[in-house]
Amino acid sequence: MTATLRFEDKIAVLDLGEDENRFSPDWLDSVDQLLDQALSEGAHALVTTATGKFYSNGLDLDWLGANGDKAKWYVQQVQSLFARMLTFPMPTVAAINGHAFGAGAMLGIAHDYRVMRDDRGYYCFPEVDINIPFTEGMAALIQAKLSPASAIVAMTTGRRYGGSDAFAAGLVDFTASVDALTAKAIEMVAPIGPKNAGTLGAIKSTMFASVVTALNTDG
Ligand SMILES: C/C=C/C(=O)SCCNC(=O)CCNC(=O)[C@H](O)C(C)(C)COP(=O)(O)OP(=O)(O)OC[C@H]1O[C@@H](n2cnc3c(N)ncnc32)[C@H](O)[C@@H]1OP(=O)(O)O
Known about the structure:
With 219 residues, the chain is of the alpha/beta class. It has helices at 25-40, 61-66, 71-86, 103-110, 127-130, 136-145, 148-156, 163-168, 181-189, 197-207, 209-217, and strands at residues 4-8, 11-15, 45-49, 54-56, 92-96, 99-101, 113-117, 123-124, 160-161, 174-176. It contains eleven helices and ten strands. The strands form two sheets. The protein has a six-stranded mixed sheet with strand order 1-2-3-5-7-10, sandwiched between helices. Helix 3 (71-86) packs antiparallel against helix 11 (209-217).
């Protein structure tokens, strides 16, 4: 479950871990710290991916079940990560190496771009089938990135999208073989080059101001 950060030239590659990469409080802390590190070490862009067959299976429902009294705090922690990724002051791309469900799918959507493995793994918002309605912030996040027609299907049917289906629906920008996935993600953002972090962060914060407000006040 350990998240790690490495650099490929000036591109920070954040690996979310090697199991289901559920959003436990410890995992959220470690990802937050690695994002700090990407910034402090001067990355020009950020790629997130994971090892194995999961990008992320989403909320840590076992932890939540055992800590129901902390549910509000927990959802705020999760939504803070979404808001941070949505406005992260460098180009971001999620290299979706496998299953991305629920909050894992939302984390992917919060990036600027997405590339998904073409042969295995599902991109899925299962909330309608597991009886966990989206918060206003979560709904705003997904709807900010998908067309209305794609959002209706993705958010209200629980459809599991393989790579080619996710591309057709506009959930991802590219597909690639698993071996080429990280390289494709780097190829997407490396040519953009370094941008002024204050300026890019301000642009994204303005573009997504209403989503960030919903993510910060909701939960
Ligand atoms: C607001 C709330 C937010 C939240 O976050 S709530 C929490 C949300 N999270 C969840 O609900 C977790 C959901 N996750 C799961 O149910 C499971 O963790 C998975 C289904 C993701 C994985 O389960 P596994 O038993 O490990 O299945 P497999 O071996 O990875 O694959 C299942 C079958 O699906 C096929 N398959 C996988 N990818 C594709 C693809 N892209 N195109 C076609 N088929 C695919 C495989 O081959 C296999 O099939 P074959 O069983 O016949 O071998």
